[in-house]
């Protein structure tokens, strides 16, 4: 933060503590004109007010709290840009990327810095690393039948994947359902693991400029007819002639291609919606969905468990 805000925060914080100290000192002085222990001549409902001082135990605790406030602010960060005498940090600040975070983490470990986040990561790796390494030695098919392994994989999925695919893994518009047998890039253990490790970048081009509005209607009609939908036969016949430009990815039979992530158009399962309007939007403007790569975030051993969990969702155990 800037020097101005650092000074502003420091002045307010220290001033507040100092103000509490002065207020306590003022309250300890007898300014009533009545001797301590005497009647204040205030009575209500039979209760008489006595001029008693603050309890000593309470006063001592208040002083201790003020002293601890100054000690804490001296040892730990809290006063603007002052990092504290101990050099403790909750986490690495001003990190802009995963690479910067990893570099800072390694530097903290090498220097023995009191960075709570880095120490927690190191402790977790020391404790759980061998467990994940042991799971990684087993095949995905084997892990898919191990309930304990699947519980671990499910927790990893809920923490990292459910934001897009849902906690039940059934997906939503633009995010695939992982519980069925419809796969864009293949549903084998190796293909699922590759998807999670490296991520996927879809590239459905926009055909609006090439086909024109009428051409898009025709191609959409033919695409819908491939899954048995009732369409205008005239439009579908015209669309079949134009489908050649789509066949390069989706195949002549419209059954898709794992190599390109091109969906099967014959099963009536649609990632972005199967209404005529939704399919028209897809053909007209294209789709460019992105599945992020998790290799540098989770690591291969954890991804191996997530793969087993995802695989188990669509296969009999």
Percentage of residues in DSSP E strands:
under 5%
CA radius of gyration is 33 Å
Query: How far is the first residue's CA from the last residue's CA?
Result: 55 Å
Q: How would you describe the shape?
A: elongated
* Total count of strands: 4
The CATH homologous superfamily name of the largest domain equals Cytochrome c-like domain
Helix share, percent: 55-70%
Q: What is the H-and-E element order?
A: HEEHHHHHHHEHHHHEHH
Largest sheet, described in full? 2 strands, antiparallel
Q: Low-confidence spans: pLDDT under 50, at least 5 residues? A: none
Subcellular location: Cell inner membrane
Protein name: Cbb3-type cytochrome c oxidase subunit
Subunit structure: Component of the cbb3-type cytochrome c oxidase.
Cofactor: heme c
Q: What report would you give on this structure?
A:
Keywords: Cell inner membrane, Cell membrane, Electron transport, Heme, Hydrogen ion transport, Ion transport, Iron, Membrane, Metal-binding, Oxidoreductase, Repeat, Respiratory chain, Transmembrane, Transmembrane helix, Transport. Residues 148-227, 234-314 form the Cytochrome c domain. Its cofactor is heme c. Belongs to the CcoP / FixP family. The chain crosses the membrane at residues 6-28, 60-79. The longest helix has 26 residues, at 3-28. It is elongated and about 105 Å long. Helices cover 56% and strands 4% of the residues. The chain has 14 helices and 4 strands. Helix 1 (3-28) runs antiparallel to helix 2, helix 4 (116-136) crosses helix 14 and helix 8 (189-198) packs across helix 14 (300-313). Strands 1-2 form a two-stranded antiparallel sheet. The chain has a two-stranded antiparallel sheet with strand order 3-4. The chain has 4 domains: 1-21 and 53-88, no CATH class; 98-122; 138-201 and 293-313, Orthogonal Bundle (Cytochrome Bc1 Complex, Chain D, domain 2); 208-288, Cytochrome Bc1 Complex, Chain D, domain 2 (Orthogonal Bundle). 21% of the residues are buried. It has 317 residues and is mainly alpha-helical. A hairpin with a 2-residue loop joins strand 1 and strand 2.
């Amino acid at each position: 933060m800037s020097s101005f805000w650092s000074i502003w925060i420091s002045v307010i914080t220290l001033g507040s503590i100092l103000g509490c100290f002065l207020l306590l000192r003022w309250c300890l002085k007898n300014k009533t004109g009545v001797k301590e222990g005497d009647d204040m001549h205030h009575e209500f409902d039979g209760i008489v007010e006595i001029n008693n001082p603050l309890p000593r135990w309470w006063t001592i605790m208040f002083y201790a709290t003020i002293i601890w406030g100054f000690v804490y602010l001296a040892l730990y960060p809290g006063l603007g840009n002052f990092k504290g005498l101990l050099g403790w940090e909750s986490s690495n600040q001003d990190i802009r990327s995963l690479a910067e975070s990893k570099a800072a983490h390694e530097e903290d470990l090498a220097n023995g810095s009191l960075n709570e986040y880095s120490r927690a990561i190191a402790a977790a790796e020391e404790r759980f690393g061998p467990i994940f390494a042991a799971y990684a030695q087993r095949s995905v098919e084997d892990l898919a039948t191990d309930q304990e392994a699947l519980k671990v994989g499910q927790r990893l999925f809920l923490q990292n994947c459910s934001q897009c695919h849902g906690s039940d893994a059934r997906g939503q518009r633009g995010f695939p359902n992982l519980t069925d047998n419809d796969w864009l890039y293949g549903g084998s253990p190796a293909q699922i693991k590759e998807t999670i490790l490296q991520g996927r970048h879809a590239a459905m081009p926009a055909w609006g400029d090439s086909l024109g509005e009428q051409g898009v209607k025709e191609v959409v009609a033919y695409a819908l007819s491939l899954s048995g939908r009732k369409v205008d036969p005239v439009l579908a016949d015209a669309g079949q002639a134009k489908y050649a430009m789509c066949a390069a990815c989706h195949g002549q039979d419209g059954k898709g291609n794992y190599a390109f992530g091109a969906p099967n158009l014959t099963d009536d399962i649609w990632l972005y919606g199967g209404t005529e309007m939704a399919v028209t939007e897809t053909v007209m403007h294209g789709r460019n969905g992105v599945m992020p790569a998790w290799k540098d975030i989770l690591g291969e051993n954890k991804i191996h468990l997530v793969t087993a969990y995802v695989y188990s969702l669509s296969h009999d155990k």
